[in-house]
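Could you help me review a protein record that somebody else here produced? What it holds is a sequence and that sequence's fold in token form. I need someone to confirm that the token line plausibly describes how this chain folds. Take the sequence as given and treat only the tokens as open to question. This is what I was given:
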Amino acid sequence: MEYFSRLVKRRTSDSEFNFHPKCEKLKITHLLFADDLMLFSRGDLPSISILMECLQEFRDVSGLAVNTSKSSIFTAGIHNDELHGILARTEFVRGAMPVRYLGIPLAAQRLSVSDYSPLVDQIAKSISKWAAKSLSYAGRLELIRSVIQGVECFWLQIFPLPAAVVEKIHRLCRNFLWNSRCAPVAWAEICHPKEEGGLGIRHIQSWNVALLARVLWNIHRKSDTLWVQWVNGVYLKGGSVWDWQPKKGDSPLLQRLAQIRNRLVTEFGSSEALIQHMEKWTDGKGLVTSKAYEYLRPKHARQPWQTDIWKGFIPPKYSFVLWLGLRARLATRDRLSFLHEEEACSLCINRQESARHLFFECPFSDYVWSNIRDWVGLSRRMSTLLSAMKWLKKEKTGSSVQNKARRIALACTVYSLWRHRNEVVFEAKAPCPDGLVISIRISVYRQLLTLPHGLIAH
């Protein structure tokens, strides 16, 4: 294609060729990506004819021809008579904006909510494949973090997402995570780092702004890319991106970038102060979006013990149930009293089932905890999950393996008690404390065996 580029450059230097108004400054005539070719010119027959002659000459030399049935021409502001002549000359199909390219809509106007349907549909399609599988909360969470947020990122670094689209994505992810329409924890609470009590899912709006802030920075630094050169040449005309004011007909993306710029300038007091701070978000190669996101995202108070829930040696499914328990968001019967169903504890049938009763006050649970405490060498009785986590964080007696065993045992016992309770409620199984103790010990041993030098001596 190097030959084609030289050919087009030579032929478009002809006085009869007119550049597209937005391409004349940089003399842009074509873009190549993989097997795709985009040609640009003013919408007049002489200019179109020169480009078609280039395609014909390239075909004669290389044997590579344009497939006219798969090619489209996009026009604006051309009289019908001239348009008919252009269509006859090219034999291309007349296209209409927006058009999808590499899965992304290309449009001359601001995208509507419906134009984002490919993104929403792609996420919904991924979720529908996973929904039929038996996945734990932790498994669903990981799919959202690794797959769905990867799909989002492709769009977020190009487009500002409207609030309505963000809400659709939130709804899909929320329903998938909780496997229902009733979420025990608000999505906004989930979108915090784990040390702040969240699940480490990125806050979409803040991540979107961080990615677009990188675009702003590239324009400011005049990065060596054609798009940045084009923006600086056509819109900024050599001026500063911090002073530029968009006009009504300017690119919707650039108008949105101006809004983000104005928000950031307001927060920092001046463009000079903003630039100094953005310098801290760079790494010598460009703006690091993770640093920008850390500044832009909503914040919660840090609670150091929260990170102990998510230690790498604790299975994620244990951590997730423990996280719900610490937030008092497990669906115990006291929280479902509005359903007017049985409220008694399913394990002891003596008192109302609450998280505190189920895990610490119930005779069944107390028996299980007593056995597990003796087994891992803990003399302290625990009354709440929060006090247990705080105490374990301070407790440093014993070897590293013993400390890990205690944390695994705590998480495993909470997970196992909750799972056993659900088996009793939903599968009509009989409560079996001794069997549960044995099951917990086996699970903890198995997990320790996955660790380096991880087997307890007794």
Summary: Residues 2-96 form one domain. The CA atoms of residues 45 and 314 lie 69 Å apart. Confidence is low (pLDDT under 50) at residues 454-458. The longest helix spans residues 400-427.
